[in-house]
Amino acid sequence: MSLMIAGTMAFDAIETPFGKTDKIIGGSATYAAWSASHFTQPIKQISIIGGDFPQGELDALSARGVQFEGVEVLKDEKSFFWSGKYHMDMNTRDTLITDLNVLEKFDPKVPESYQDCEFLMLGNLMPSLQRQIIEQLKNRPKLIIMDTMNFWMDIAMDELMKTIKMVDLIMVNDGEARQLSGEYSLVKAAQKIMEMGPKYVIIKKGEHGALLFHEKQVFFAPALPLEDVFDPTGAGDTFAGGFIGHLAQTKDISFENMKTAIIVGSAMASFVVEKFGTERLTEITNEDVMNRLNQFVDLVNFDIDIVA
Ligand code: AMP
């Protein structure tokens, strides 16, 4: 039983109020795979890269149980490149550059050896390609999760709606939930999104945590209050990787277990923002992860006596 992750493997250039990077490794599937690898292996990756993507990065991921049979390499072309600049609040950012490069030619193929996957994470990618991946599966996985972003709502809303219909769970941030549903209230937004197809909706609110909706049930998990947030890039993908990594590890997709998965995802996201890019995810140990999970338990645990 394994996990399939699709998305971008990319170069990013990031500017925050605290610093600036040249091209560093990024991409939705890169962050998600690093994060999920702390909980489940192997991870069967679907992406496309150019000849410029460093072999050392592939080797490091491979040492974490990530497999690349579904990653197409176009030797003479450039990898996807994204550049963004964060505002002072570190919650909002402007996209400066999106160079699709190899992504323009991406025609994802699910290898035969991936057909046994019981969990599928569709990271941020063109919605038509996300759907193309689902359509190639011979057996429906236990759980299909998708992430998306405002970029696709602006340019490919019809395609996005078709893909949303086919997944079990969608993750969006609060602004995207409002844009997708046309509702300001996140409760109403989640209800409307569930009417589009998914049985579960996760709405991420950056430093204010995340909400999980299913039918009439709602669960809220805070984000860990951190002294310093250095670079929020990839927080959403890292959250997604931790969330689905935990579900794949425990093989339990009940609402109760999704509550734990949200905490796991939040704990992983709290690491990634501590340094630029994926760096922090590459250095943390299982003990670091356990300690951080315990910090979450302490953060939200309280006893109250209710006097009638
Ligand atoms: P997040 O901060 O979780 O939204 O993810 C940021 C990552 O998503 C970066 O590493 C980018 O390379 C990648 N990314 C940015 N824009 C897109 C896009 N339009 N499609 C796919 N991946 C993207």
Description of the structure:
This protein has 308 residues and is an alpha/beta fold. It has a single domain (2-299), classed as UDP-N-acetylmuramoyl-L-alanine:D-glutamate ligase (3-Layer(aba) Sandwich), CATH 3.40.1190.20. The chain is 37% helix and 25% strand. The chain is built from 11 helices and 14 strands. It has helices at residues 28-36, 55-63, 127-135, 150-155, 157-164, 174-181, 186-195, 235-250, 255-272, 279-283, 286-300; strands spanning 3-6, 10-16, 19-20, 24-26, 43-50, 66-74, 80-86, 93-99, 119-122, 143-147, 169-173, 200-204, 210-214, 217-221. The strands form 2 sheets. It has a 9-stranded mixed sheet with strand order 6-5-1-9-10-11-12-13-14, sandwiched between helices. Strands 2, 3, 4, 7 and 8 form a 5-stranded mixed sheet that branches. The radius of gyration is 18 Å and the shape is globular. The model has no long low-confidence stretch (mean pLDDT 95). Residues 8, 10, 12, 26-28, 82, 98, 124-125, 149, 151, 233-237 line the site of adenosine monophosphate.
